[in-house]
């Protein structure tokens, strides 16, 4: 239960979104405009240069910023010089216990540097009288594409479709000059509908010379010509965009494969996502396989027959609620007339089809209104006889406008995703099997999609722009880093060194104990399963848990008492507060001060989990550990050990430590910080984003962390008050160690390349500014950890990977597929038991410690072994993993408060987070009441 994780987020050239689908590195910003070219670089510095000095002044106060031997020139116009990402200090690491030959899903791209891509801004509006222009409805993206296509098809010589790429909104990139100015397009969306006139304004905003991209790859330009990369990326998306279902940054075929039906009107669609990346071998196309569940394109009534269990159109009233829930919000087209227009189902009509009537068209409003029945209207207007008269119609209207259409004339539009969490068990299992394919199968599917006619390399568009793709994957040699020696305890609790299994990198606790067990004397059980059939068997579970903890050298006494409750009380905030009050009263009667932790037993997963965590961690100030009664009753040794590890970590114990010190440059006090932002789902337009920053507070073990959680502006990636949160964590470190850390390694999660500038020139500056207010100037290394990318590593031969065909843990790649001169690398730190392992992409943005490749790669790999909840290295560096868990916990707090508050209060909260017009600082009471941890939990790992 406590291991639940939040929805994560996409990355790309454009804005990141973490509740939504994946975002590729090639995302484009439709509102981007031309910007001046970046200054040129001086000669690249020698790899043996000394480490850059610490920044002694706030960046905004500088006219020049030195990064190694590279300086950005001051323009003398009052502008602020920017910090740019750190450069690679060497040609890659050399330390390894083995090497593995790999192929990578990077397909090299050749382009003609003599070519110029023309960037045009496109503005489309409905041609209305001036007095009606303000009330013009927003034009849908599908209609924008229809208008653009009609303009190009009517004028093929002036507007050659195969020589252009369109993002569906504001931007067209063209290989040839296009006419500019205003053009009128008349569009009739359907049979019998009024023809509408649109004005298309086309303006050339930039000429993108591919020679600049060549100069950047050669190290002659400081900043990547991002607009050129966006233009080329859009060109590579044009062919699949015309011929496939576009969903977010992914593309899926119009029809699913035979055998991929998931039942209930749902099918799995196998597609891909791709992006362009600058690498050491030039620009490369990175493409990865993707699977999503979609509702099938089918008649609405057929969908209901498949989707709603037992559905019978003759007894529709019995299934009305389920039918409306299944259809509400879906897009449909109609078949009783010719039209390409798509409608959204608002609801079902209250009356049946035979009883629906409305004012007749053309009736004289000065006299009595003439009514016409829907049945008669469809016969007179379209010659259609309605078959199903005793079922409701679909209301496809907007706002107060009604638009009644019989269900038998409605068809679901393709490409409507079905949430995987709503699939039944069998369908979910099938989808998971299709998603987690073996490395060999994934490699084969990627090759098929790269070569497909409807893929990014098919068609004429990319060739017309002078872009050619090598259809063979890139070959590279990876190094396997040696896993660290770990410190655990033996059966007597004495510290011992263990060397993990080099194949899977797992370690075993059967005959070992944790590095430092916490003594547990004051704890109690809050049993929500007490009145359920599947209730906790106390006399069995408690002795087994106590004994398992003692074997791990976590000295655990019996619980002081058990507080019985019901699952119904778990979902009621008021009842929960009363229960916690009763627990505190019981503790007072025992006269033992405060409980160390409260074990909360549930008979099933329940929405009340978020209320429990919110109340216990922000109001009561007690650590809770949740478990399910059915799993607890089984008494599985591994399950009990996992519970013990979580409890020990939450109470300040140490489950595992590195036997040797971290591979750092000296013995100074180091602090590791992780930062992440959790965004609300894509359909949520008001909830704030949640930022979490965690920091290690013990040294040299560096395996205990404190967390700070804050609300942010809605779906904004920048962490507001980043420096303040980091400073609070530094104070916690100082209280624990009696000294502030001299060196900080900060890991930032969830940002794309386009947001590096924000991280460096806003977030890093904010941190240094906050530190300077306390006369504190530690050296800082800032690293971005990216998981949402398309790069996959495959052993060239089966013998190169483990028994499942994946690369071994500790595989690092820092040549060929990495950036031409920035400091980045790929590390696969975990063992891939199922599916295909995805490496984490680490990108060093700022380095005041002068790390070379080997010590930094080793440091990050070693950190992956310190995650408290498991006995194996994790795929994401531990500080970032913890930040992700803490940010998700903040999301639960917000949901709990929103559920509890009245509609009036909810509206006031939503107004805080709904737009940029409301500042974050204006919601002080909202922030304090929702995210402020109880003082007793500010420095404990409540989030694991």
Automatic annotation (TrEMBL):
Look up keyword Plastid and say if it applies: no
- The superkingdom of the source organism is Eukaryota
Q: Where is the PAZ domain?
A: 299-414
User: Mind telling me which Pfam families this protein's record contains?
Assistant: ArgoL1, ArgoN, PAZ, Piwi
Query: What keywords are annotated for this sequence in UniProt?
Result: Repressor, Ribonucleoprotein, RNA-binding, RNA-mediated gene silencing, Transcription, Transcription regulation, Translation regulation
Q: Name one GO molecular function term.
A: RNA binding
Q: Which PANTHER family match?
A: EUKARYOTIC TRANSLATION INITIATION FACTOR 2C
* Protein name as it appears in the record: Protein argonaute 2
- Protein source organism: Punica granatum (Pomegranate)
Q: Which gene encodes it?
A: LOC116213325
């Amino acid at each position: 239960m406590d291991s639940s994780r939040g929805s994560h987020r996409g990355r790309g050239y454009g804005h990141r979104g973490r509740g939504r689908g994946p975002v590729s590195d090639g995302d484009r910003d439709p509102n981007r405009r031309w910007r001046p070219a970046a200054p040129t670089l001086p000669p690249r510095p020698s790899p043996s240069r000394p480490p850059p000095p610490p920044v002694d002044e706030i960046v905004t106060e500088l006219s020049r910023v030195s990064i190694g031997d590279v300086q950005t020139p001051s323009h003398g116009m009052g502008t602020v010089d920017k910090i740019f990402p750190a450069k690679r200090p060497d040609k890659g690491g050399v330390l390894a216990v083995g090497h593995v030959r790999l192929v990578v899903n990077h397909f090299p791209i050749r382009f003609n540097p003599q070519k110029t891509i023309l960037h045009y801004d496109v503005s489309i509006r409905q041609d209305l009288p001036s007095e009606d222009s303000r009330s013009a409805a927003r034009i849908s993206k599908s209609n924008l594409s229809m208008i653009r296509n009609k303009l190009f098809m009517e004028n093929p010589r002036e507007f050659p479709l195969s020589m252009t790429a369109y993002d569906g909104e504001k931007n067209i990139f063209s290989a040839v000059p296009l006419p500019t100015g205003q053009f009128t397009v008349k569009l009739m969306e359907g049979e019998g509908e009024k023809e509408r006139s649109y004005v298309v304004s086309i303006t050339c905003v930039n000429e993108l010379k591919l020679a600049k991209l060549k100069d950047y790859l050669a190290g002659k330009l400081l900043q990547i010509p991002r607009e050129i990369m966006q233009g080329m990326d859009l060109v590579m998306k044009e062919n699949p965009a015309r011929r496939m279902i576009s969903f977010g940054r992914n593309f899926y075929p119009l029809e699913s494969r035979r055998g991929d039906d998931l039942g209930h009107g749902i099918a799995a669609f196998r597609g891909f996502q791709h992006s362009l990346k600058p690498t050491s071998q030039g620009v490369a196309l990175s493409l990865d396989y993707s699977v999503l569940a979609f509702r099938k394109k089918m008649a609405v009534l057929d969908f209901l027959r498949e989707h709603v269990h037992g559905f019978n159109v003759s007894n529709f009233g019995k299934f009305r609620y389920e039918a409306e829930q299944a259809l509400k919000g879906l897009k449909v087209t109609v078949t009783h007339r010719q039209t390409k227009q798509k409608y959204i189902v608002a609801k079902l009509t209250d009356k049946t089809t035979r009883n629906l009537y409305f004012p007749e068209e053309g009736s004289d409003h000065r006299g009595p209104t003439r009514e016409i029945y829907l049945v008669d209207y469809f016969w007179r207007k379209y010659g259609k006889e309605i078959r199903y008269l005793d079922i409701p119609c679909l209301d496809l209207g907007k706002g107060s406008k009604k638009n009644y259409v019989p269900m038998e004339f409605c068809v679901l539009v393709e490409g409507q995703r079905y949430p995987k969490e709503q699939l039944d068990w069998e369908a979910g299992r099938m989808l998971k099997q299709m998603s987690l394919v073996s490395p060999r199968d994934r490699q084969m599917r990627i090759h098929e999609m790269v070569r497909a006619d409807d893929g990014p390399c098919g068609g004429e568009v990319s060739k017309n722009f002078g872009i050619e793709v090598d259809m063979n994957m890139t070959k590279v040699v990876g190094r396997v880093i040696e896993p660290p020696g770990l410190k655990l305890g033996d059966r007597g609790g004495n510290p011992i060194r263990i060397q993990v299994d080099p194949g899977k990198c797992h370690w075993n606790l059967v005959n070992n104990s944790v590095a430092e067990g916490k003594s547990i004397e004051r704890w109690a059980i809050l049993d929500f399963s007490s009145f359920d059939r599947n209730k906790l068997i106390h006399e069995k579970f408690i002795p087994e848990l106590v004994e398992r903890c003692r074997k791990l050298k976590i000295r655990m006494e019996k619980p002081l008492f058990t507080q019985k409750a019901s699952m119904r009380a778990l979902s009621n905030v008021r009842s929960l507060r009363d229960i916690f009050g009763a627990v505190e009263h019981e503790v007072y009667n025992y006269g033992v001060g405060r409980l160390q932790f409260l074990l909360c037993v549930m008979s099933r997963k329940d929405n009340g989990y978020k209320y429990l965590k919110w109340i216990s961690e922000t109001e009561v100030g007690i650590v809770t550990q949740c478990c399910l009664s059915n799993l607890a009753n089984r008494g599985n040794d591994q399950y009990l050990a996992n519970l013990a590890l979580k409890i020990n970590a939450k109470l300040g114990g140490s489950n595992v430590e590195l036997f040797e010190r971290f591979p750092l440059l000296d013995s100074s006090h180091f602090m590791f910080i992780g930062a992440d932002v959790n965004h609300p789902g894509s359909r949520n337009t008001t909830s704030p984003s949640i930022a979490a920053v965690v920091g290690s507070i013990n040294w040299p073990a560096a395996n205990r962390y404190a967390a700070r959680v804050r609300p942010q502006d809605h779906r904004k990636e920048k962490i507001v008050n980043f420096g303040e949160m980091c400073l609070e964590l530094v104070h916690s470190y100082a209280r624990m160690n009696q000294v502030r850390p001299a060196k900080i390694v900060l890991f930032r999660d969830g940002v794309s390349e386009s947001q590096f500038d924000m991280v460096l020139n806003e977030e890093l500056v904010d941190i240094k500014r906050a530190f300077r207010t306390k006369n504190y100037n530690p050296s800082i290394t800032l690293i971005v950890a990216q998981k949402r990318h398309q790069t996959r590593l495959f052993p060239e031969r089966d013998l190169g990977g483990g028994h499942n065909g994946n690369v071994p843990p500790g595989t690092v790649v820092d040549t060929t597929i990495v950036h031409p001169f920035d400091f980045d690398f790929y590390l696969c730190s975990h063992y891939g038991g199922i599916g295909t392992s995805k490496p984490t992409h680490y990108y060093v943005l700022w380095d005041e410690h002068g790390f070379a490749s080997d010590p930094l790669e080793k440091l990050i790999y070693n950190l992956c072994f310190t995650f408290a909840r498991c006995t194996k290295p994790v795929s994401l560096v531990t500080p970032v993993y913890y930040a992700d868990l803490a940010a998700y916990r903040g999301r639960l707090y917000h949901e709990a408060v929103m559920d509890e508050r009245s509609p009036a209060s909810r509206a006031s909260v939503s107004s805080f987070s709904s737009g940029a017009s409301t500042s974050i600082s204006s919601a002080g009471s909202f922030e304090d009441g929702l995210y402020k941890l109880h003082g007793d939990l500010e420095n404990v790992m409540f989030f694991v």
